[in-house]
From TrEMBL:
PROSITE patterns: ALDOKETO_REDUCTASE_2. Keywords: Oxidoreductase. CDD domains: AKR_AKR11B1-like. This is Aldo/keto reductase. It comes from Brevibacillus nitrificans. The lineage of its organism: Bacteria, Bacillati, Bacillota, Bacilli, Bacillales. GO terms for cellular component: cytosol. Residues 37-334 form the NADP-dependent oxidoreductase domain. InterPro entries: AKR, AKR_Detox_Biosynth, Aldo/ket_reductase_CS, NAD(P)_OxRdtase_dom_sf, NADP_OxRdtase_dom. GO terms for molecular function: oxidoreductase activity. The keyword Disulfide bond does not apply. It holds the Pfam family Aldo_ket_red.
Length: 337
């Protein structure tokens, strides 16, 4: 039984002195209340797979989870593919007896074959198998938010078949809410023909604002909660990189155009402009970036990628950041292409 039921409310219990700085919002029209800053676990999956951030210390990862709990974070997001199951296992172990104090989210539909190559599969049977495997790795009997990681563009199954599998998991009591990641509006509509979608997880940041055009207005209209991933643009908005930064060979960013060559230089030029705005507001660039994301009326939470405890503690002030329309317009002008 989850704490939500014991307390007769959808709001999890927060703890720690820092929790008074955290804010909480309801996830869409039907979902639970979650912290406006979420814990992202992609990086703690570690190295040795094709979408790695490089090696990671498991003890440090678990300390990061504990720091997030102490900061009042109640939304923890993971996925099987993060470290090929390792991130799920770490999250489950680190939460321990506090499991029922949080909203635990994982994903499906993006898995690996015997050669550790990533493949997409949204078929009914595959989703059901994945859910059982995630429950075991997480050490829990229920997944609070189960999200389709990517639409099945490999064409194993249409979006409505995937949604029927996820709906069955809700009926079976193994999943509480259903979400989608990286979906377009037409694919969300196809999924909605089977069941209401509780949440969407798109990439969204100052540097990647495309969700503002269609996705966010649609979700706001339909009562779909939105949890943005990469609000710091995978580190570009962390404020710690310069024009001379180079990423290690085992870091996926070393092979991505946004983090190399002329594109990286242009992005660093934009960050320099954002630094002056942040300084005037007496906040950091990461706090400004998260504040920008949370300012959109469709947003419920911003998922921050965490590798060390300070990655959470250093951005707590963003939960309270309030950017007026003039500042938001200034930010957009600073990064305009």
């Amino acid at each position: 039984m989850h704490v939500f039921q014991r307390l007769g409310t959808d709001r999890p219990v927060c703890k720690g002195w820092e929790s008074k700085h955290m804010k909480y919002q309801k996830l869409g029209k039907n979902g639970p209340e979650i912290s406006v800053i979420g814990f992202g676990s992609w990086a703690i999956g570690g190295g040795n797979w094709e979408m790695s951030w490089g090696d990671q210390d498991d003890h440090q990862s678990m300390e990061s989870v504990r720091a997030a709990l102490d900061a009042g974070v109640t939304f923890f997001d993971t996925a099987p593919v993060y470290g090929l199951g390792h991130a799920e296992e770490l999250i489950g172990k680190a939460l321990g007896s506090d499991r029922d104090q949080v909203v635990l989210a994982t994903k499906c539909g993006y898995l690996w074959d015997e050669n550790q190559r990533l493949v997409k599969n949204g078929t009914f049977d595959s989703i059901m198998r994945e859910a059982e495997a995630s429950l075991r790795r997480l050490g829990t009997d229920t997944i609070d938010l189960y999200q389709m990681h990517y639409p099945d563009t490999d064409a194993h199954a249409p979006a409505d078949e995937t949604m029927r599998a996820m709906e069955q998991l809700v009926k079976d009591g193994k999943v509480r809410y259903i979400g989608l990641c990286n979906y377009t509006v037409p694919l969300i509509e196809q999924s909605m023909s089977v069941r209401h979608v509780d949440s969407l997880q798109p990439p969204y940041s100052i540097l990647v604002p495309q969700a503002e055009r269609e996705l966010l207005p649609y979700c706001l209209e339909q009562g779909i909660g939105v949890v943005a991933y990469s609000p710091l643009a995978s580190g570009l908005l962390s404020g710690k990189y310069t024009h001379d930064t180079r990423f290690a060979d085992d870091d996926w960013r070393s092979k991505h155009k946004a983090y190399t060559g002329e594109s990286f230089k242009r992005n660093m030029d934009r960050v320099e402009k954002l630094k002056s705005i942040a300084a005037r507001l007496d906040i950091t660039v990461p706090q400004l970036a998260i504040g920008y994301v949370l300012a959109h009326p469709a947003m419920t939470s911003a998922i921050v990628g965490v590798r060390r405890p300070e990655h959470i503690t250093s951005i707590l002030a963003a939960a309270e950041a309030e950017l007026d329309d003039a500042t938001l317009a200034e930010i957009r002008a600073a990064v305009a292409r």
